[in-house]
Each structure stands twice: as structure tokens, then as C-alpha cells.
Amino acid sequence: MTQAAEHFDILIIGAGLSGIGAACILSQEHPHKTIGILESRGATGGTWDLFRYPGVRADSDLYTFGYGFRPWSGPQAIAEGSAILQYIRETADEYGVNDLIRFHQRMVAADWSSQNSHWRITVKRTATPEARSSDLGHGTQRPPAHGPAAASSATNEPSGTGEYLELTASWLFNATGYYRYDTPNEPDIRGLRHFAGTVVHPQLWPREMTVEGKNVVVIGSGATAVSLLPALVDRGANVTMVQRTPSYIIPVPTENRLAKALGPRLGEERTAHVARAVATRQQRLLWKTSKIAPHLVKGAIAAVNKTQLPHDVSVREHFNPPYKPWDQRVCVAPGGDFYRALKSEHGHVVTGTIDEITKSGVRMENGQEIAADVLITATGFNVLLFGGARFSIDGVPVDLTEKIAYRGAMLSDMPNFAFAIGYTNASWTLKIGLLVDWFSRLLAHMDGIGATSVRPVAPEGLPTKPLLDFGAGYVQRALDRLPQQGTRSPWLMSMSYLADRRELRSRPVVDEFLRFDDAAAPVLEELPALLAGPGDKGAEHIVDLGDGRTMCVRTNGPEDGPVVIMITGLAFDLTAWPISFLKSLVTEGFHVVRIDNRDEGRSFRATSKAPSVRQLLSGDLPEGQYTVEDMSEDVADTMRALGVGRADVIGFSLGGMIAQSLAAHHPELVRRLVSLCSTTGDPEVGTTATSTAAMLMLPGAPNRSVYIRGRVIIGRHLAGPGYPIDEAYEAQLAAAHWDRSLDPHGESAAMRRQIGAIRASGNRAEVLADITAPTLVIHGDKDKIVRPDGGPATADAIPGATFIEIPGMGHQLHPALMPTLLGYVNEHLVAPEQRPTS
């Protein structure tokens, strides 16, 4: 009998900057999900552990390069690679994600099973060469590289051991970036193999290599070469940078002056957020201006260079790129270190075409000879998307070049596959943070609707262009192997942080292009049916109870199944129940009946005067104020009208109070009881926080948009700290609630009448002692409407009740909590074969 493959809810590929950041966010926001990280190397850090050449650093300021959830707090605006590596590892330690990492495991293939809704992943075990075996924890030991073959043979990247294993995962999140670690781009230069000195590629830099007193030629003009030149000069080398095509270079301060000024006044954390916001806009302004007025920016950069360079170095000859600014990435010189090196007698720049490499150095086409003991080929890297893994769907190979990027996070027709590629015109991490936030929202949405897979479907005839629309050589060499992007949102790989922030954080997570596993059609944000979610085929009925009372119900599940009555809380209609909750019950064979309480949704509106805030506080309620018991009679009469003799009853918040009253006064109707986030009415327990009470007493919304904003604010306030709401989705729910209501402008008065019902019923603890139905009481320890002590007080009042407290849960049925809640509820309601029929 073969052993079942280990399964993960989310499998992250790569433990570098992106993978560690994703793991930190997802483990915090989805604590119930199993998360694993595959790392083919023996250390965390990715690029920042791989690159060890002198001067390695970020070319973006660290306030935007750092994680949004753990702001950079160092003094440098541009930090060295070692400081970034330490920052990544400290973050992993602080957020406890190191235990999730499987070192020396490389994903080589993944096949999606539509039948099982998961990926089956083939993993190759790797091993680091013996030269690095003593330092697997940091991945830093490298032998010296000598001779013409050194550049291609000095790699110490892990190789396969011949051992494979299989894993399964509901989701793949690829965070490998797009560098190929083991094979850099080797220049094809005539005579290179005849060079008598040392040839080194920066990607494979030997730790023990020394350059003091040596003539060093750096071939290249990109960020690596610009970083190497001053660093090697500082190490005592005589350095010449040989470039065929110049890059744009601008000086930047080594410290963030704004942060330095604000720090003593605002504190470290607030200062970091302000500095991040300002730096983001500065980056965007430079890039946008470069696109709108390239010649203006080109001239400005040239003018700055002229003031920084020594007088004998010509800007026109050496720093005059033939392309526009930001057609390729602009290089930076922190503190002007590049210019300072050129002003010294040991830093030089030569622009032209290399004729050949001689035994003793470099000969240019114009005949110039440059002596060299060391050649550094800073000629870029090779692109390797998704770590080079092969993908298939139900055994059919996937051609990645036919796929189109969706929101820069998924690929068309690739189920449950997400990836992370950062900005090419700003800090990499800015984009990664937005992508992971969107991905987390998508996971929560799927939990909420009970979907197990999702895939984007591109519209017919969508115009496309290369995934990385960038002029850099490494991109151009890989275009024929990359997926595509579209020409309009959400199929465009946007390079604007501000636009992406709107698209990925503020707008609904679901649009017409996403297809869920159990939905033949997309979920449209404008449709009130959104609240029903994919797969909700419920039928809505108006039940006339006589005497002016009409109750709206929606039914789901088999007609002959045991009935479950679901009662919502204060100021919510029947659509407030998460669809995953509903679908779980239907899957178990229940016939589910959701009810709009009086004064909500499409049920009748009471004619009594709504109590004022003063009356609610004093308890001197207006004549005709109804009670919780009256609301439970609505439910009892509705059950009789529907022909329901007995049912399991689930109530949330006010709905829990109604369910309790129903079970106490009509034991013949209630088979089992579940009370969620509710209380007994005892004024000593379960009282509302003052801040929450004040929000509930605000005047009614004059229009739909104000109502939506108010609901989002209240939702944000009520959610537990561990389960923040998806504000865009919350706004959708509020919009549909307004549209569905019989009297949307009367929502405030209706809510005050419902609060009045709670006040009018008073302490119901003695009555709850009459409940005979087996009862489950669930409460969150961060509830701001019904104080957490209301839960155990309810359980104490009901004979034999079981109490469950959920850490971090507020007054909300958050999608991420559904697996936990459903586990308790389904266990309480007994297995289907053991349940009595209706």
C-alpha cells in the first residue's frame, strides 16, 4: 500500500524576499491553512543569499523595498545586500515561518487534478556541493575561481540527488522570481578562453577572492557594474568599467532625510510609513515624467552627471544612452559613490565595442588596450520563470507561452496557481505586497463561498504583448519562452503602484473573468445575486402569517432533508450568512431555511415608533415596542406555515437570542440549538463596547453610498484583529443589502427597534434554563458588540450546553473561520445517517 502524499493548502515555491513575505502574511491571515515552502537551496534569502559580489545592494530605497507589514527601520536609504539578507531572515524569525521551509527540495513538475481539485507536485531533492557543506545554513562558502573556465564552472548551486518525492497542494504560489541561479548569462567574446588571468561572473563570486593591487576590468554597464566599480576601488583595485551601451545613472542620498527629520517626532513605525508613501510617489513621478517628457529627463540626468563626474570624463561619450530613460532600469549611485570612484586615480570608464580578449587584457575595436588581471563579466543573468518547472492539467502539458497574466498574479486557465513578479520600474516588494494581499482576499472569498478552485478566463480576441515589456537584454533574450499579458486591466502587468493599489486592494476581488469550480457563470459585482454566491440555487418565498406579518425565507437543499433554520443578527438580512456555511449544511443533506427577521430584508416592517437614543439608554421605550420573544414567535409561525414540525436552529447575535427564545418557549420545534456570538440579556455580561454602541446610534444613511461606507466602517470595527474584513467585498454586500431592503432609508429606525427588542426582553437567563435541546454556544474572544463574557454566561444558563471560544474572532463570521466553525457545527448536528428525518 503506497503512502499518501503530504498535502498543503498553500505551497509557496521559493524562500527569498517574495516567498518569505508571502508566508508571513498568509500564515497570519489564514492560520487554519497548512502552508509549506519549497526551497531548492540550503538557505533563505534567495537573490540576497546568492549574490555576494562586492557592493551588492538594492537599487531602490529600503522604505519601499522593505515589507509593508514590517517597515525597514535601518538608517540607510539604500542598503547593502548583507543588511537586506539579515532583514529577510529576521522577518522570517519574527513571524515564525522558518519551520514551514523544506530546504533542498525543488519543484520540477506539477499536474492539476480537476477531479481532486489539487496539484500533484513532483519534487527533486537537491544537495549543495561539498565545498559549501560546512555552511549550509547561510549558503556562502565558494571556492576561488581561476582561469578562463572559472565563470562557468564555479557554481555552487544545488544539483539533483536523483531522489524524488510527491506532494499535493490546493494552491501553488510561485515566488521564485525570474533569475536562473545556477547559470548566469555568459558573454560570447572572442578570445575569452585565452585570457591568462581570472574570469568571474558576479553571480558566482568566490568568497576568498582578493583584488587589492590588481587591474580589474568590469564588462557591463548595468546596476551590477555600477555597484562593483566603487566597491572594488575601495578594496584597492585599479578598475576599468568597459561598456558597449551606457546606462542612465543618478546619485541618491545614502540616508532618507525626511525619515531622519520625522523620526524623533513621529516615532519609528509612523515615520517608516510616511517615508514609504513619499518614496513611492517620488519613484512614480520620475518614471511617469520619463515617459511623458523623456528628453527633459534625459537632459536633467545629463546635467546632474556633469556636475558629479571628473572634468576629463565626457557625459556625451560615456553617459549618453541611445534609449529613453526607463526603457531600461535607471541605475543609482548612493552618496555619489560611482562618481567618487571615477574621480580617484583607480576608477575608469571606457565606452565602445570589444574586439577581443587577449592573454593580458581587453583590446577595443579602436585599438585601445586595457590591461587586466581579473575580468568580471557583469553581463546580466538568464531568465528562468517559475523555477523551470513543467506544468500540466489533467495530464495535458501546459504551454506557458499561450497563457495570459491576470492581475499580475494568475495565468489564464491555470486553476489555483498564483505567482509573484515585482515592479521593474520601482521597488520589487511594493508589487509583491499588493499581490499577496489580493491573493489572501481571494482565499478568504473562496472560503466564504465554499469554492475549492478558481481560474481566470481571458476574453476572446484579447490583444497581447510579452509578459515583461521591458528593454533589458535578459528580458529580450527570453521573450519566446514567456507568457503574455493583455493590453487592458485586469490582464495588464501594471507598473504603477498607485493604480495597482486601487485594482488589487480597493476593488472587488471577484470580477467577470474568474470562474469558480462550482459556478457555470462568473460572479458579477453588480448583481444582488452575489450574496447568494456561486452554487446557491436557493428559492425565495414570502410567507404570509396573517395579521399583517409577512416573512421572507430562502430555502436550499433537498426538500426531504432534515430542516435547519438560520436566523441572522441585528440589522442583517438572510444573505449575511457565508455561503460556505450554507453549502456545508446542504452537502450534509440538510434542507436549509434562512429567514429575514422583521424589520430587515424583505420581511414586514413594524409600525411602532422607533425608540430614540435617549430611550434606548434609559430603557423607557415607546409604546408598542416589540420584544425578542415576539421575534421568536415570527419564526415559530413561519415554521408552522412551511409545514416544518421540528428543526435544528442556528442563530447569530440577535438571531442567537431569537433562537434561544424559540427553544425555550417552543421546545417541540427545536431539535438542536447553535447560538453564535450571542448572550442572555443579563446587563452584567455581554454588554456592547462604548465605541461600538456609539457607532450603532449614528443617524441613518441619507443615500446608498453613505450607507455602504458606514457598513464598511462598522464591519472593519467589529472584525477581530486576526480576521480583517475584505473591504471591497464588504461594500458589495452592503450595496446588495440596500438594494434588497423593502425600506432602505428606514434601516436606522429598524435597527433601533431591534435594539429596543433586546432592551424590552431584559435578562432572559431564567427562561433559558427551560431549554431542553442539545445546545452549542460559540463566541469570539474579541467580540465588540457582545462582550466575550456573554458566551460562557449563555452556556451556563442553558442546561448541558457546550461552550467554544475562538481566539481572535470578533463579531463576524469571517470566511477564514469557516472551516473551524463548520467543524464544530457539523459535529454538533450529528452525522447525516444518524439524524432523524423532518
Structure write-up:
- The structure is a single chain.
- The chain is an alpha/beta fold and 838 residues long.
- Helices cover 32% and strands 20% of the residues.
- It is built from 25 helices and 33 strands.
- The strands form 8 sheets. Strands 1, 2, 3, 4, 5, 6, 17, 18 and 21 form a 9-stranded mixed sheet that branches. The chain has an 8-stranded mixed sheet with strand order 26-27-29-28-30-31-32-33, sandwiched between helices.
- Strand 8 (215-219), helix 6 (223-234) and strand 9 form a beta-alpha-beta unit.
- 49% of the residues are buried.
SSE map:
Layout: E1 6-13, H1 17-29, E2 35-39, H2 47-50, H3 62-65, H4 81-95, E3 101-103, E4 105-113, E5 118-127, H5 150-153, E6 159-174, E7 198-200, E8 215-219, H6 223-234, E9 238-243, E10 249-252, H7 257-266, H8 268-292, H9 294-308, H10 315-318, E11 331-334, H11 337-343, E12 347-351, E13 354-357, E14 361-364, E15 369-371, E16 374-377, E17 390-393, E18 396-397, E19 405-406, E20 410-411, E21 417-419, H12 428-449, E22 454-456, E23 464-466, H13 473-476, E24 484-486, H14 497-506, E25 514-516, E26 539-546, E27 549-556, E28 563-567, H15 579-587, E29 591-595, H16 613-618, H17 628-642, E30 647-652, H18 654-665, E31 670-676, H19 690-696, H20 704-718, H21 727-740, H22 747-761, H23 765-768, E32 775-780, H24 790-797, E33 802-806, H25 818-828
Parallel strand pairs: 1-2, 1-6, 2-3, 4-17, 6-21, 7-16, 8-9, 8-16, 9-12, 10-11, 28-29, 28-30, 30-31, 31-32, 32-33
Antiparallel strand pairs: 4-5, 5-6, 13-14, 14-15, 17-18, 19-20, 22-25, 23-24, 26-27, 27-29
